[in-house]
Amino acid sequence: MTKSFLFLSDFDGTLTDKDFFHVIIDHHFADQRDKLYDDWDKKVMTDLDYLTRLFKSIDRDQAGIDDDIDAVPFDPYAKKVIDLVKELGGDFVVISAGTDYYIKRIFEKNGIEGVKIYSNPGVYENRGIQLKVDPKGPYYSELYGIDKQKLARDLMKEYDTVFFAGDSLPDLKAAMLADTIFAKGKLQGLLDQEKKNYVAIKSFKDIEDYLITHEEEMANGSR
């Protein structure tokens, strides 16, 4: 079947109910919790620098970090939506400013295969997760490590219709390129400011309901 639509999704806070870096702070930096969250909110450094420093400072063996990854609350309806997208002839792709180190493990744990992941490369090294971002890469961003807007624009070229799911500021510009936006959390207010229509969601159950309702037109490649 010709694949007529693309479903792009953020990972942290969108496919999960809690960002991985929140889990790390709450589990291992509780005594610095308020300051770390305040630094994040005030953007005292770029998101990339912040996550790079935090992840490499975890100071746990690999099995311990895997336990932290397993503690991330993954949306129980996500796999159903991914499978439905495939059944309808579409491609499901993750674009994340986190790291593929934990995304791959979470997908494997949940039996999710055949999903392309574009994220900051990460490896276990020196009792932490080391981000291996290439500043010369085609989608490099000084702010986030990965430029979601540029990546989304390139990925969209091969498809008639594009869906996007996200929850926060790094998703905004990429989301604005999509035909249909599924928005959680802070992304809703940002899209309101841009006067951009979206489908408000609390979980992937809402996306599942939408796709089922629009199944026939999607299968026909219609918007």
Task: Describe the overall structure.
The protein is α/β, with parallel strands linked by helices. It is built from 11 helices and 8 strands. It has helices at 20-28, 33-42, 47-56, 62-70, 78-87, 100-109, 148-156, 172-175, 185-193, 204-213, 215-219; strands at 5-9, 91-99, 116-120, 122-125, 128-131, 161-166, 180-183, 199-200. The strands form 2 sheets. Strands 3-2-1-6-7-8 form a 6-stranded parallel sheet. A two-stranded antiparallel sheet has the order 4-5. The radius of gyration is 17 Å and the shape is globular. The mean pLDDT is 94.
SSE inventory with pairings:
Layout: E1 5-9, H1 20-28, H2 33-42, H3 47-56, H4 62-70, H5 78-87, E2 91-99, H6 100-109, E3 116-120, E4 122-125, E5 128-131, H7 148-156, E6 161-166, H8 172-175, E7 180-183, H9 185-193, E8 199-200, H10 204-213, H11 215-219
Parallel strand pairs: 1-2, 1-6, 2-3, 6-7, 7-8
Antiparallel strand pairs: 4-5
Q: What form results from the Cα inertia axes?
A: globular
Low-confidence runs (pLDDT<50, min 5 residues)?
A: none
The largest sheet, given as strand count, sense and whether it forms a barrel, is: 6 strands, parallel
Estimate what percentage of residues fall within beta strands.
15-25%
Mean pLDDT across every amino acid position: 94
Strand order of the largest sheet: 3-2-1-6-7-8
Order of helices and strands: EHHHHHEHEEEHEHEHEHH
- Total E-strand runs: 8
